[in-house]
Design goal:
119 residues; 3-stranded antiparallel β-sheet; alpha+beta
Length: 119
């Protein structure tokens, strides 16, 4: 269910930014102005977003839609290098290959690209 929601949010964020998802059913990777981006989303109380090292190696930016207390989502951009500096391995043994970054840090350091309402 969470995966399906993530893909749905990626489509909404891509549409808002004018990006094109590369493979909407399998990945949140997209192209935006000749750059490859990864679109991540998180509900208000979710503490972290994650990405694999392999994904970080092939993208130019991470775009995160993070829900605010008012229910809207603020869209932030951070670089893969910044993500690498902040990341820690997932605590879940099933997803130990995923590197996590705290949403609070993304909010502090990310460039704001806009706000959206979930459809």
């Amino acid at each position: 269910r969470a995966r399906k929601w993530g893909f749905s949010m990626a489509q909404q964020v891509a549409s808002q930014l004018g990006a094109s998802l590369m493979n909407p059913k399998l990945s949140n990777e997209a192209t935006l102005k000749n750059r490859k981006i990864l679109i991540k989303s998180a509900h208000h109380r979710v503490p972290e977003i994650g990405a694999t090292i392999a994904t970080l190696d092939r993208i130019d930016a991470i775009v995160a839609a993070l829900q605010d207390k008012d229910g809207l989502y603020t869209i932030y951009e951070v670089s893969p290098n910044w993500f690498r500096q902040e990341m820690m391995p997932s605590r879940n043994p099933k997803t130990s290959h995923v590197m996590m970054v705290r949403c609070a840090r993304v909010r502090e350091a990310g460039k704001v690209l806009g706000r959206i309402k979930e459809l």
